[in-house]
Amino acid sequence: MIRKCLFPAAGYGTRFLPATKSMPKEMMPIVNKPLIEYGVEEALEAGLDQISIVTGRGKRALADHFDTNYELEHQIAGSSKEAMLNDIRHLIDACTFSYTRQREMKGLGHAILTGETLIGDEPFAVVLADDLCVNPGDGVLSQMVKLFRQFRCSIVAIQEVPADETYKYGVIDGEMIKEDIFRINNMVEKPAPEDAPSNMAIIGRYILTPDIFDIIRNTKPGKGGEIQLTDALLQQAKDGCVLAYKFKGKRFDCGSVDGYIEATNYCYENVYRGD
Ligand code: UTP
């Protein structure tokens, strides 16, 4: 059973400066809901109700968001505006939230290792909240949790990307073992198109087995001088098995301005006005 979902949320979000100078990127709203709230909803839908967040300096708004705001709630009690808090109140009631701080931003692998203290020795999911995923049926994490029950190994979500965009992603090479499921035999972090082993790019949804922590501990800084999760996953794939899953649904790269605008337009039409 997977119960925990880790949100690495300590990055600086430099692509959104100056907005992210004092506000966490994960609190940027898509219409009227912050990115991280969409991610926690997806986790809860998949049955993961223990939410672990890796934060950093200037990220206190994240913890405040998943807490009661007595003054505000008292102020709007009994008014029509109260209903606007229904979704977040439901999450706060249904989930537990714990936090730890990454002191130095040494990369995604390092952020996940920082979360070990919250996860312990059990399989867990990872959500990068700036990748917003939507699907009319099961959410992407739900799809992956089902797969984990069957295969019991680490799983990364992938999507096909245009060849000239591989430099933005970890890119996999693998053999197809079932429709939409690949066994990984190579992975490269942010390759130039000519070095990319395929056009199948890893996006911000993972299920990891806890042996990943020891592997990250032994992973040297890679691309950009950061401790890369991709490097640790490649080691895990070589030692055992890591699967890549071509998920059903749409994914918006809300860490980039273009993806953020696209997600905003999509959610305004399909989620906000559809509510
Ligand atoms: P990104 O590569 O998107 O970096 O990190 P970033 O700092 O958030 O954004 P830019 O590129 O400067 O605009 C991917 C995910 O990993 C987390 C980020 O918070 C984001 O969710 N992360 C990254 C950490 O938690 N710690 C790190 O040291 C690096």
Write the layout of secondary structure elements.
Blueprint lengths: L3 E5 L20 E2 L2 E2 H11 L4 E6 L4 H6 L4 H7 L9 H9 L1 E6 L6 H7 L1 H4 L4 E4 L3 E4 L5 H12 L2 E7 L9 E9 L2 E9 L10 E9 L3 H6 L11 H11 L2 E5 L3 E4 L3 H16 L3
Parallel strand pairs: 1-4, 1-6, 4-5, 8-12
Antiparallel strand pairs: 2-3, 6-11, 7-13, 8-11, 9-10, 10-12
The chain binds uridine 5'-triphosphate.
Textual characterization of the structure:
With 275 residues, this protein is an alpha/beta fold. It has one domain: Spore Coat Polysaccharide Biosynthesis Protein SpsA, Chain A (Alpha-Beta Complex). Helices cover 32% and strands 26% of the residues. The chain contains ten helices and 13 strands. It has a nine-stranded mixed beta sheet, sandwiched between helices. It has a two-stranded antiparallel sheet with strand order 2-3. The chain starts with a strand and ends with a helix. It binds uridine 5'-triphosphate. Uridine 5'-triphosphate binds next to helix 5. One of its GO terms (molecular function) is UTP:glucose-1-phosphate uridylyltransferase activity. Its EC number is 2.7.7.9. Keywords: Nucleotidyltransferase, Transferase.
- Compute the average pLDDT: 95
Write down the domain tally. Answer: 1
CATH class designation: Alpha Beta
**Model regions low in confidence, pLDDT < 50 over at least 5 residues:** none
Q: In sequence order, what are the helices and strands, one letter per element?
A: EEEHEHHHEHHEEHEEEEHHEEH
